[in-house]
Amino acid sequence: MPEAAHVGSGKVRELYALDDERLLLVASDRISTFDVVLPTEIPDKGRVLTGLSAFWFARTSSIVPNHLLGLQADGRSSECRRLEMLPLECVVRGYITGSGWKDYQATGATSGHTLPAGLRESDRLPEPIFTPSTKADEGHDENIDLDQAGELVGSDRLQEVERIALELYRFASEHALARGIIIADTKFEFGVDGESQLVLADEAFTPDSSRFWPAADYEPGRAQPSFDKQFVGILDPQGEAVLGSLKQLGFAVGDARVGRVVDLELQNGDREQARADLERMCEQLLANPLIESYEIELVEEE
Ligand SMILES: Nc1ncnc2c1ncn2[C@@H]1O[C@H](COP(=O)(O)OP(=O)(O)O)[C@@H](O)[C@H]1O
Ligand SMILES: [Mg+2]
Q: 190 C-alpha vs ligand 1 centroid, how far in Å?
């Protein structure tokens, strides 16, 4: 391998420059939820991410070119084309869950898509929808509507990204469903090459970027058992992900009990302020797949 300069660290990947045109992306075994890297690594997780991405890159290259040039023998490192990344997380949702479900309950819409009345939690949407969010260098990704996304990348590029993201989702979700796995939603990152061509980058249809549900247990009307980060509740019994996230967001949380249900208490003298703070906190947690829904109870103390 040629000398490679370390050029960056993501939460999960280390990036090295092989030359001006090529990067080496090394997927570690770190797991992050809500922008917080958990204390426990998951053996071989990085190899699973790299392998799954390569699987999907190979099968989707007729839909859109991708950044993958080659895999290395360690199974976790991939040589990629170095791209100018679009500042967008390109999310596609086929089912209504997480922050989309919360938005829908409150407004009947999510990210500017008005949805039919009467949907239950985890219901399949009549059509998959494109719901981009910002890719924040610092802080947290925020859901935005198509106008805001258009301002970030230009409206022609945005239309192209939307069309391709939906096509990728349709293709992979059919492939997976035929094998018993529902891809409820997924996130792509795209870059642009020297010829201004759109290229699929980062990772594709991994448990870090997607919600996978076992189709055999699928039952709308509740949250679904899943193959993705919900297991973090088990891996992180002390709730460091939730507590770390809240701390980063500026919330002082005393105590938390974590399992399938995260139970935490906040003290605040002002009732309305407390409710507003809690709602803001939960909305921010929902924006990532860390929690599925929330309830707030205000208790008066003498
Ligand atoms: N082909 C590429 N060219 C340039 N940057 C890329 C490419 N593919 C992925 N990236 C960037 O590399 C980083 C991958 O590391 P990761 O740990 O997944 O980061 P993050 O913490 O943002 O999820 C991301 O910032 C991603 O945007
Ligand atoms: Mg990433």
A: 10
Annotated domain spans of the chain? 5-81, 84-225, 231-285
Does the reported pTM lie above 0.85?
A: no
Q: Which CATH number fits domain 5-81: 2.60.120.260, 3.90.215.10, 3.30.200.20, 3.30.2290.10?
A: 3.30.200.20
Q: pLDDT at position 95, please?
A: 97
What are phi and psi for residue 214, nearest 5 degrees? -65, 120
Q: Which of 48, 202, 206 to mutate to test the pocket of ligand 1 (most atoms within 8 A of CB)?
A: 202
Mean per-residue pLDDT over the chain, rounded: 87
The ligand placed nearest to the CA atom of residue 30 is 1
**Does residue 133 carry a pLDDT above 80?**
yes
Q: How many CB atoms lie within 10 A of CB 85?
A: 15
Mean pLDDT of the 130-159 span: 87
Atom in ligand 1 nearest the alpha carbon of residue 67: 1
Residues with CB under 6 A from ligand 1: 10-13, 15, 23, 67, 80-83, 85, 189, 191, 201-202
| Fold assignment, 84-225 | D-amino Acid Aminotransferase; Chain A, domain 1 (3.30.470)
- Residue of 112, 134, 129, 110 lying closest to 189 (CA atoms): 134
Instruction: Name the pLDDT band for 290 (thresholds 50, 70, 90).
Output: low
Give the number of other Cβ atoms within 10 Å of residue 254's Cβ.
Answer: 9
